[in-house]
């Protein structure tokens, strides 16, 4: 029987190939949707794990997390600088690091922060050392620059027509280890340098504030270019925060205990500040993402149903065209069960191969998409099969079993006399 089936498939290789490809593409669509959605959840959750608590000015919690954790460019309102001083002196806080952004270089975001955050972000350096002066910078693992290279920050991005700060040049002092977060594509510089280049800090922010400028987006709005200060690249960093520190878009906080984290979150969710757990915000995003996933899965299932219907139509027509062959087999003494088995096995084999190939194509497509997202965002997107995928494969094979039975039953019910007269 097997040799007969193989000979039949070789004879009808073109039609068999079309059936396999149709099943493979329909399966790959569904598998790719499932794997990509899972990779997005895992990647974003692991990226947010690096940050326990984020505090910013009152506004959108989602935007605060997207800007501070995932470094998505968008204007954020500023909170008073004394919040940083209070957090630094709070016994419940292990460390608190301000972040300031808005500048970029060659498409990489420049983030102003502290020595503490730069040192603890990745747990060490792949090469080089931590920045210790205003003119030094540390780069993420995915930044394609070499140690000692010059960085001339641009306010905003080249696409937005940003202006380059020609009066300041950073030199790369070290490269962080990979973190699997958006910070792998970031250039970290001292927040002190960011303040100084924008005419803030060391008393300069007072004059800027008196001028009534709106320092949205990292306290470095481009309307402030006339206030660029002269900075000293060799100046030693001072990271003792005073109550008159410049306004800040966000502060990343490491509480000492879980209880401290919840108390801090409650304390800073009133007045002009908002405190959020990134994971909590992501949970809300996942709810929306789950709805989108259901829609995409429904679309994929619809495509698979159309393919199944077309295959049924094709096989019914094919069985009709093979009535003489079936009649000849019956005339030579082949039992009905053998006819049923030949047709069922032939069709099931083609669909099963298509399902297997579809899983491989879906996995390859998910890997490609994840690599593209990781390259643009820096966030590692792990792609892999889980137990649920085994259930999906079993369900598809069960459906293939039933689908293959239809043409087999048609062949089974044909009488030899009718088949020979056809």
Topology, pairings included?
Blueprint: H1 2-11, H2 13-48, E1 53-57, H3 61-68, H4 82-89, E2 93-105, E3 108-113, H5 115-120, E4 125-128, E5 136-139, E6 150-151, E7 154-155, E8 170-176, E9 187-190, H6 191-197, H7 204-210, H8 216-219, E10 250-255, H9 258-267, E11 273-276, H10 278-321, H11 323-331, H12 336-377, H13 387-413, H14 416-421
Parallel strand pairs: 3-9, 5-8
Antiparallel strand pairs: 1-10, 1-11, 2-3, 2-7, 2-10, 4-8, 5-9, 6-8
Brief description of this entry?
The longest helix has 44 residues. Helices cover 53% and strands 14% of the residues. With 422 residues, it is of the alpha+beta class.
Number of strands: 11
Biggest sheet character: 11 strands, mixed
Q: H/E order of the elements?
A: HHEHHEEHEEEEEEHHHEHEHHHHH
Rg, Cα atoms, Å: 31 Å
Helix content: 40-55%
Q: What is the 3D form?
A: elongated
Provide the structure class: alpha+beta
Please report the number of helical segments: 14
Poorly predicted runs: 203-229
Q: Bin the strand percentage.
A: 5-15%
How far is it from the N-terminal to the C-terminal residue, by CA? 24 Å
**What is the residue-mean pLDDT, rounded to a whole number?**
81
Could you explain the architecture of this structure?
By secondary structure, this protein is of the alpha+beta class. It has 14 helices and eleven strands. The protein has helices at about 1-10, 15-50, 60-70, 80-90, 115-120, 190-195, 205-210, 215-220, 260-265, 280-320, 325-330, 335-375, 385-415, 415-420, and strands spanning about 55, 95-105, 110-115, 125-130, 135-140, 150, 155, 170-175, 185-190, 250-255, 275. It is elongated, with a radius of gyration of 31 Å. It starts with a helix and ends with a helix. The model is unreliable at about 205-230 (pLDDT under 50).
């Amino acid at each position: 029987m097997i040799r007969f089936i193989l000979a039949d498939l070789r004879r009808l290789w073109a039609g068999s190939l079309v059936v396999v490809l149709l099943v493979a593409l329909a399966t790959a669509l569904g598998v790719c949707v499932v794997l990509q959605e899972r990779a997005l959840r895992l990647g974003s959750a692991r990226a947010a794990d690096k940050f326990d608590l984020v505090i910013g000015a009152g506004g959108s919690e989602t935007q605060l997390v997207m800007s501070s954790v995932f470094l998505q460019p968008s204007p954020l309102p500023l909170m008073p600088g004394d919040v940083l001083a209070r957090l630094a002196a709070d016994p419940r806080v292990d460390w608190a690091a301000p972040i300031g952004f808005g500048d970029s270089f060659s498409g990489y975001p420049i983030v102003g922060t502290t020595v503490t955050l730069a040192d603890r972000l990745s747990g060490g350096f792949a090469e080089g050392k931590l920045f210790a002066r205003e003119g030094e910078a540390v780069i993420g693992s995915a930044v394609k620059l070499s140690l000692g290279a010059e960085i001339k920050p641009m306010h905003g991005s080249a696409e937005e027509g940003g202006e380059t700060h020609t009066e300041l040049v950073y030199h790369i002092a070290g490269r962080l280890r990979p973190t699997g977060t958006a910070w792998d594509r970031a250039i970290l510089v001292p927040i002190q340098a960011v303040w100084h280049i924008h005419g803030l800090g060391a008393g300069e922010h007072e004059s800027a504030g008196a001028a009534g400028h709106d320092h949205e987006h990292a306290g470095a709005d481009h309307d402030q270019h006339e206030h660029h200060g002269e900075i000293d690249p060799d100046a030693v960093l001072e990271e003792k925060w005073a109550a008159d520190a410049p306004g800040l878009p966000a502060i990343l906080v490491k509480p000492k205990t879980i209880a401290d984290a919840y108390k801090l979150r409650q304390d800073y969710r009133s007045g002009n500040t908002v405190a959020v757990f990134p994971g909590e915000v992501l949970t809300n995003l996942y709810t929306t993402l789950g709805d989108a996933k259901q829609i995409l899965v429904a679309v994929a299932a619809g495509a698979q149903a159309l393919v199944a219907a077309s295959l049924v139509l094709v096989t019914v027509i094919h069985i009709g065209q093979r009535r003489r062959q079936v009649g000849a087999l019956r005339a030579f003494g082949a039992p009905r069960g053998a006819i049923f088995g030949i047709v069922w096995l032939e069709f099931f084999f083609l669909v099963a191969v298509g399902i297997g190939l579809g899983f491989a194509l879906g996995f390859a497509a998910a890997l490609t998409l994840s690599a593209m997202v990781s390259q643009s965002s820096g966030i590692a997107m792990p792609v892999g099969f889980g137990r649920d995928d085994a259930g999906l494969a079993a369900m598809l094979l069960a459906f293939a079993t039933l689908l293959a039975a239809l043409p087999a039953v048609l062949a089974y019910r044909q009488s030899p006399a009718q088949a020979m007269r056809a």
